[in-house]
Amino acid sequence: MSGEGVPVRCPTCRRDHVYVPPAYPCACGTPLAPPIQRGAAPSPITHRTWNDTWVTVRCRACGRQGQWPQPELGCSCGSVLKLPVRPVTAPPPPADPLPPAQAPLPNARPPGARARTAFRPRTIRTARDAVTTAALYLTWLGFAGVLRAEPASAFGIDVRGRGLVARVDPTTRPASLKAVECLWLHAMTSSARGVHFSLAGYTPDARRRAEGLCLPLFVLDLTGTPQPVNGAARRLVSTGA
Fold this sequence. Notes:
Trna Endonuclease, Chain: A, domain 1, 2 domains, 3-stranded antiparallel sheet
C-alpha cells in the first residue's frame, strides 16, 4: 500500500508534483499508507487545528482501523496542500501480510541525496514535538551538538548546535519575511548556519528573501518528515552539514 506515486497539481501555482504517501507498519506488521483519492483536488492549508490532522485508515491485511497523519505536500511556491484520502467503507478482501521484518522504514532522503541511515520521523502533535523533530533531523543531516534552546532566545532560536542556529515555527500561519531576516541576521552575528522550519509554509516574500540569502527552508508535515522547499535546503539535504 506504499511506494505508488500520485500526481498532484498545486491549485495556487499550477505546478505538478508526484506525491508518495509515507508508509508505517500496522500492528500486524503490514506497511500501511493513507489511500490518496486520485483525481480529487488538494486544498491549501490556511488554518491548522490538531483535531483535523488525522485520518482513519483500514489495514487491508488484518482489517484494523487506526488514525494516521493527514497527508500533506509542501509545494515550491510556499503552499502546504492537504491531500484528500478515500473514506473508510466496507473492508476489502484481505491480502497476505508481509513479515514485520520486511516493513519499510520511512526515509526523508530525496532522490540524489548522499547515502545515510534512513531518518526516522516522529509524529508531530504539539509545538514541542515540532522542535524535537527539527533537532533530530538536523542531527541526521550531520550537525553536531544539536540541542533544544532552553529557553528559546529573544531572537526566536529554538535549536542550537555547533555552528548552527535554527528556528521552528509551529503556528498555523506561514512564516514571514521578518522571521527569515531575523534568523539570517542572528546566524551571521553568531558565525553560524541558519535553518528555518515551518508547519504552515512561508509567505512569498519570505521565500524570495531566503533564496537570496541562501537560507535553507523546510516545511514540517505532521508525520514528522521535513521537506526542503528551496534550493539552499535541497543542497543541505544532498551534501549534509
